[in-house]
Structures are given as C-alpha cells and as structure tokens.
Amino acid sequence: MLPLLVFKSIIFAVVPLILTTCSAYEIPSVKVDVLRSGFNLTIADEPGIKKVLYIVRINGECPGFMDLIDKSQPDWTASHLATELKDKDMLDISILVDHNGEAYKTFQNLIVGTNNNQGIIKRNLPRKCYGNNSLNIDCKPSQTLVADKLEICKDQLIFEENFDGPTINAEKWSFDIRNLVTGRQTDEFVVYDNHGDNIFLNEGSLHIKPTFTQEELRKASIDFGSRCTPVENVVTECKLMAKPPRIYVPPVNSSQIHTRETFRFKYARIEIKAKLPKGDWLLPYIMIQNNAPFDRKQMRIAFARGNEQLTVANDLKDIGGRLLYGGIVKNLEEHNTYFKEYYGISHFGNGFHVYTLTWTNEAISMAVDGLMYGQIFDNIDEYFFITLGVSAGGHLEFPDNLVNPNVKPWKNTSPKAVKSFWQSIENGTIAWNEESRHMIIDYVRVYAV
C-alpha cells in the first residue's frame, strides 16, 4: 500500500484517446469486502489484465490510499487491514487497468452497509480508454486539489492561458462588473466593466487599460442591472448616482477578470509573465483570492504601485514602482498583510517579468524571474481562484504620510476623497501615458505541487 497525499492523477504517459480500439473492453466491477478489521478491494481476473491500480478516498478525505497490483493471486486484490470502515462511509474508488497493453480507467463508488457488508459497487461511471500505453506509475503524489477534478500528479500543468484567441475565453474567465465606491475602507476609485476600451487581446497578450470616466463629475451615474456581479452589497455595487457634495461615482473605468466559476484550487505553483501598469495611483492586481465575500483573503503574486517614485516621510522609503510586493492579505477589510518585498533596478512596468507564487500546505514563496525573494510559513486551507485586474486610488494602498504630502490629491477615508481624485483628473494633475498605463499579461500557468 502506498500512502496518497492528495493523490490526484495517475496519468498514462500523456496518451492519445483511441476509443475505437478500446470500446470492446469494460473493467469488471470492484467487490469491496468489509472485514472485522479493514477491507479488501477485488477485481476478478480476466484474460489480458496485466496490472491494476486502485486509488481510494474515504468520505472524500485526504490522504487516501494507492495500491498497484502487478500479479493476480488469483484475482486482483488490495487489502487495507488497518483501516476500519463504518456504516454509511463513502468510498470513492478510481480503478486503472492495463489490459493487453492498453490503459483503461473507471470511477466507482460505494456506501458501506449494503448487501450485508459484502459491498458490491452500486454505481459505475462511464468507462474510459486512454490508448495503448501501459500504466505510468511514475506519477508523484501531489498536494494540489482542484475543484471538480479527482486526480492530479505533482508538477502537472493544470491550467494554462496564453491569450492567443480573438477574444477572452469565456470558458475560463468571467468579468467583474461592479462599482468599487461603496462607503467602505476597502473602496477604490474604479468601476469594473467589460468594455473593449478597457480590456482586450492583442498579439497574444491580455491588455487591461484604465481610462478616465468621460461623464461630468456631478452628473455621472451607474446602473449595471442584471449584468452586475456584486461581492458584498448588491445595492451600492450595482447602482450609484452622483449626489454632490458627498456622493460621487468612481472617476476611473477599468476591468478585472477571474476564474471563480471555472477554476478553483488549493496548493499550486502559479507562474505569470506580465508587464505591470505605470501611472500615478494605479494598482495592479495579479493574485489569487478565496471565495468568501465577508472574509476575503488574497495571495498577491505581483503588486507594485504605478507611481514612478513615492517616498514615505517617516523612513524615506521609496514605495513607488521599483518596489515589488508578494504575499498574503489575511483580511482585506482590516488590511492585515504579510508581504515580502524586492527592489528592482527600475519600475516593474518598464518591461516583462515572470512572477511566481508557490503555495504548499506549509508555506508560500514568491519569486521574480526565477529569484525567490520571500517565504511565508502559513497553512491556509481554502480554495482560491485567479484574478487579474487594474484599479486606482483607494484608502489602503497609498499612505498619507508622504515626504511631499501635496503630491497625493486625497486623504484616506476622507468623504471628499473621490471628489478630490476627480478634480485632479480634470485639472491635469493626474494624467497617464497612453501605452504605459496598460497591464499586459503574456501567459498564466498553474502547476501542481
């Protein structure tokens, strides 16, 4: 018996599907014998069976068990005498069979307590053939979990996006469509939408481009209707009308996409090649997030402010775009952060870099261009999803205590903050270069760990 640490995929040496040659054979049903001490799994021997691999999880828990049987005695039996099964226990069993040199796979399930504990599998899913390759047992156990996927091998590429198509792939990505000025400390001065001016593909890369709202300060309004994707408050995130002198809609339009509905995972190595945006008060979000609206957590893969230079008064530290951050936001509302920092030679928006975040069940490490610059020991145990977006302003990421306080046109948490940002745009104090304001993503790759 081999222990299975979140064993998620026994792969057949990247085999092609050869359904026409495989349709004649079906894997026999598994018999589960529940004993006083432990249980046995058995497939009856048939001509042509060379190897059998069982992967078992009990009640969905990991670690599970993996057994490779390469000789029948006389049938193909795996014994687990130290593991006691109870009534109503659920067994999820993946069976892989080498039959005459071709690999076959099926999933079978059992609820203990049927047939007087002579547990014949009660349900068979459709059997699948994976071509004329014998079982590849070199697959290493992985910590990685992916929602709705049963099997993954360590170092397996589990998600890839190269942005090569004519439009953003709706089977992978969804848009945030909401207003970020809602009267909370987490506000940023942005409206997220899916306008083609703000997000598009060009020459195999994703571009996210923030723009200034074209409406007049006092007349701007928002009403997303059924398109809205609120996170916390359906009223304020979906509809807002300017009511001077206290309420103003965000002065910046931008975009943010995510994989919340299509790809959520736990523990992985995320690698993203990107060029960050340059422009005063811009914020790039290359991160993964959990799916808990009132306990929001983030792991930032690459974060550097858009300002060329921004010096803090108390220690004269430059927190402008040369300073790269990566790490954990444990609680977004409280801005409870655990970041590691790395100073680049120049602003990280001056060129492309490869940003990597490696998340295991013990630690999170950050790297840029292959150089690891920080590690945080933490055992976060939630599913996360990928998020890519550009924001601006807000109350959390730009401190008030700058060497030249007049540089920043608003005060954090001030009720006039949004109005002040609007006015700085109108008088030309805030102006962004047409090209450098873009955040450009070349590719996104996620590997199992």
From TrEMBL:
The keyword Signal applies. The keyword Disulfide bond does not apply. GO terms for biological process: carbohydrate metabolic process; innate immune response. One of its GO terms (molecular function) is carbohydrate binding. PROSITE patterns: CBM39, GH16_2. InterPro entries: Beta-glucanase-like, BGBP_N, BGBP_N_sf, ConA-like_dom_sf, Glycosyl_Hydrlase_16. Transmembrane segments: none annotated. Residues 25-118 form the CBM39 domain. It holds the Pfam family CBM39. Keywords: Immunity, Innate immunity, Signal. Residues 161-449 form the GH16 domain. Residues 1-24 form the signal peptide. PANTHER family: GLYCOSYL HYDROLASE-RELATED, GRAM-NEGATIVE BACTERIA-BINDING PROTEIN 1-RELATED. Belongs to the insect beta-1,3-glucan binding protein family. This is Uncharacterized protein. It comes from Stomoxys calcitrans (Stable fly). The lineage of its organism: Eukaryota, Metazoa, Ecdysozoa, Arthropoda, Hexapoda.
